[in-house]
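Sequence, please.
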């Protein structure tokens, strides 16, 4: 089954496994290039790295989710489309932040705690409310997309204020030329998208062989697969001391997933939320609340807090598997 623009899944199972591993390797390598390029641009232009993470990196690493959800909705698989977004956001807030924090404690800017995390939480709550009737209509999708435009406006407005005030970032600068940095970003994004497509196609093929439903595939395998760019990018960024990219990428991706991806997809093709339960949506909201609470502790997410988030994610996946 091909959900994306291309089908990278052959019929032989052993080749699917090999390509799945190759997809993971491509994603991790590309994440390093994307991180270096993004930090280089931020350093050269004097833009706070948190803004780069919330916009360029977040949009680029959310492209796999966008393609999967759009093609799923158009292909008559709304459970997979919505499940991909909900599952990806849970994966982002619990496992990605958890793993990144265990690699290196994440320092968080004051503005992120006061503005960015609350906005991501509001987006999650709005989606929960809109899904209570079991559908995402064109009106619902339009509301999500308008909120996305508001988010982009506030983010860019804050960037201008930061640039005028000469705001210092918490991260280590990367001194590379703009041309090289731009090339790294482009190559990194292409590698992330292609690597994710290879992973998702082959993981989905293996899952269907086992007879797993579309909703569960969306919440687990596809969500994890399309979130590999965020996991790789945030982990690499954290290990290199670039906390703004690490946390900004997660928050930006969560907002993009809900407001932009479901907004655009729902306007094009209204969706039912079949297979997505209140438990799934509630876990998404609770994960953002926990991330916000942990961020208030000295404006850092410590290793033990990252461990808690990771354990909660494992517990959620165990719950899904038990339900299956």
């Amino acid at each position: 089954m091909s959900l994306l623009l291309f089908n990278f899944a052959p019929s032989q199972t052993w080749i699917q496994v090999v390509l799945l591993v190759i997809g993971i390797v491509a994603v991790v390598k590309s994440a390093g290039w994307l991180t270096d390029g993004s930090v280089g641009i931020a350093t050269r232009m004097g833009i706070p790295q948190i803004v780069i993470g919330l916009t360029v990196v977040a949009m680029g690493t959310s492209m796999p989710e966008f393609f999967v959800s759009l093609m799923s909705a158009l292909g008559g698989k709304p459970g997979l489309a919505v499940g991909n977004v909900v599952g990806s956001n849970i994966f982002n807030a619990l496992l990605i932040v958890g793993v990144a924090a265990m690699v290196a404690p994440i320092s968080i800017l004051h503005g992120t705690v006061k503005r960015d995390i609350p906005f991501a939480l509001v987006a999650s709550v709005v989606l929960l409310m809109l899904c209570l009737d079991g559908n995402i209509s064109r009106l619902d999708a339009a509301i999500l997309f308008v909120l996305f435009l508001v988010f982009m406006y506030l983010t860019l407005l804050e960037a201008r204020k930061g640039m005028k005030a000469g705001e210092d970032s918490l991260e280590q600068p990367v001194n590379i030329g703009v041309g090289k940095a731009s090339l790294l970003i482009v190559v990194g994004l292409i590698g992330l998208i292609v690597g994710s497509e290879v992973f998702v196609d082959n993981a989905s093929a293996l899952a269907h062989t086992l007879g797993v439903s579309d909703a569960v595939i969306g919440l687990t395998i596809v969500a994890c697969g399309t979130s590999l760019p965020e996991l790789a990018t945030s982990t690499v960024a954290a290990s290199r001391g670039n906390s703004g990219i690490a946390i900004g990428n997660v928050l930006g991706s969560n907002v993009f997933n809900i407001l932009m991806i479901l907004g655009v997809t729902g306007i094009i093709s209204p969706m039912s939320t079949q297979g997505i339960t209140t438990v799934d949506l509630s876990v998404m909201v609770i994960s953002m609340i926990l991330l916000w609470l942990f961020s208030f502790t000295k404006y850092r997410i410590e290793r033990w807090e990252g461990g808690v988030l990771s354990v909660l994610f494992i517990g959620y996946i165990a719950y899904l598997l038990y339900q299956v």
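Residues 3 and 75 are 8 Å apart (CA to CA).
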